[in-house]
Records
---
Amino acid sequence: MKFDRDVGLSAWCSFGTGGKAKWFCRAANAEEVSEAIEFASNRCDGAFAVIGAGSNIVISDQGFDGLVILLAGGDVSVGQDGLMVAAGGVVWDDAVSLACHAGFFGLERMSGIPGSVGAAPVQNIAAYGQALSDVFVSAEVVHPSGDVETWGSDRFSFSYRSSSVKTAPRPPVVTSVRLALLDSLALGSGGLYRDIEIALGGTDRESLSPGRLRETTLGVRRQKHLTWVGVDPAARHKNAGSFFVSPFVPMDLAVEVTSAAVGQQRAEEFIGWYSKTDSKPGLVKVSAAHVLLACGFSNGDRWGTVGLSPFHVLALTNFGGATSEELLGVAELIERRAREHLGIELEAEPRIMGDSLVRPETLTRLVSSYIPASGRKPDWVG
């Protein structure tokens, strides 16, 4: 394996920000990841971090003082029984495309999600009523010690947009995944999401193929600029898709938040539909996008070179020349507003590599540079 020094990481992050890695290497399988971990143990006091497509990560402007392992490449296959085996470095949408072309359901509404296969179970990625955990069988993982194991669903402890690997202090590296794809369309209690229903129009649900649902999903995501599939690289927005995870709140608060977005008459109906597939005792899931709207933010708001996408309020975006500190600073301002105005704690979905400190002077500068899309600063802006 080749280990390089002082490698810039911004090219490996969808935000286009971040400093340098002290050491950098590529790995495609468990054996190479174990070798890389041994290198980190000998040369970096055991400090290592793993990146895939870099689409769900914010890399510190100071970089990473250790070894960064780029997990990329490998094979993906689908058997006649629908069992998919995919290396962790495979591009997620390539795996989805293969599944749909083979005639299997289970992944089609997760089309267009940027990222790699290895990150999918870590995040328990989900979209439009489907989640990775719905079809998950097992994964090959490499521990920080270098040991290799096979984990089933019980070891991952999947929850909404999370897993035990995501929350572990020293998580293992997922180097391959096995998924049990489906012969027929499974809608579950939530049915098809409204965006997909609208795009399909009057299409008979019995006649829907995995390929048709995949293309419909990609079309919806392109309208929101939440996918790179089929998009000219020059036109890609520098973001990580939805930056915040939808929170779980008491019903009365959910109605208040949702009413601000869809109106009071539709609020309870929307909440019932939106939280059908995910719930917690005494709490319902509320759209993180609705939380931002209820806080007074909107599509196109800007803080200098950082802003909310004109196409999707949850897509925190680098519009050119932003730093990771500025991105995290805007996220902190949004979180503070949600906490003070609604009592809601928003959770960022991307993981942070390296130092996440935002200096007070940076926050002050961002507040003063805030320009709402409406052109008028609200009273609550300090």
Note: The first strand starts at residue 4 and ends at 8.
---
Amino acid sequence: MHVRVAPILAIVLAVLLGALLVPGPPEVGAAPGEIQGDVPAAGGAAAVVWGGGDAEALAAAAAELGCDLRSVWTFLAGRPVGFLVGAPSFVNATFLTVFPSSEMPASTIAILRCEAVAAAPRPSATPSATNTPAPAPATWAPPTSLQQPTVAERDAAIPAYARSSWDHWVDADGDCQDARQEVLIAESRIVVSFETSALCRVLAGEWLDQYTGQVLADPGDLDVDHLVPLQNAHLSGGWAWSSSQRRDYANDLTDPDHLIAVTAAANRSKGARGPEEWRPPLAAYWCRYAVDWIEIKDRWLLSVTSAEWSSLLIMLATCPSGAPAVVPSISPTPTPTVSATPTSTPATSCDPSYPDVCIPPAPPDLDCGDISHRNFRVVGSDPHRFDGDNDGVGCES
């Protein structure tokens, strides 16, 4: 994409005065795939001429200049048509719907809103992180106090973690953008471009990896990380959740710190480890990481181990104004644990579908109101139908 600067005051006046004053396409020699016009270095509005070509290329070319599309003129039989006004997302979506992957007319006029600082270039075929790490955002400030999650050691009898039980990257609102794409769109520091006019998958943007401080332009270099990993959530109490609760946790977009875009290398280095075993390489992010970790655990009623809590306190001590005050856990009661198998009852009187508790086989048919056990493992045929949602946990409280 090439950019040439030339005065086009006549075009600006024509757009402002309306269709009657524009007898036809502007007499400006913008070549196909070329934007021609004045783009103010200090930011603000700009009227430019697009030499014709793919609609997505126009959107990408504007973004490359650090600009958003605000309105568009095209020409049909020498007359201006298709004047669109709205927020950048509206113009992009509408314009790409009108001209999906097709050649737009030559001499299309686009009104742009440009930032004072130009956006980073779109990624090449093999994009990589910038060499100079960007500083951590300066707008965030830690809270004055934090609620301590329940401190409890993990029960060795907790059912094994299975990632397939945590249905993630769902499209909850049915707009074709799954949870991963929603995070990429929300966290990009510039307006993203998409792979196709369907606007389902992100092609390019600009993301700051909070773990390392690197800035990236290609979503293929990014993982969307559960700040508190799914396996850690499972071991901290999530094992007893229903399938819908696990799905909600795995795709939570209500908290902007629950899912974050980071480099694939950093995310895979972290894995499922807690702060007692792994901390972000960028120490300037430790304060926010610890705050977010604690708030997620508290909001989802997940426990922390003593080693995990000690590490979080160390990270909180790095907060610029000192560690937030910690409100002790209200109840010392740990998260639900798996009951041990009773030894006083002969094994022959216990149904094997419920290996961690002793429940007589049918008949008679029992329901949850007939027994005292809660949140126990269910395997096999489940003759009493205690596991109504088939998530492997019976009589969930």
Note: Residues 2-114 form one domain.
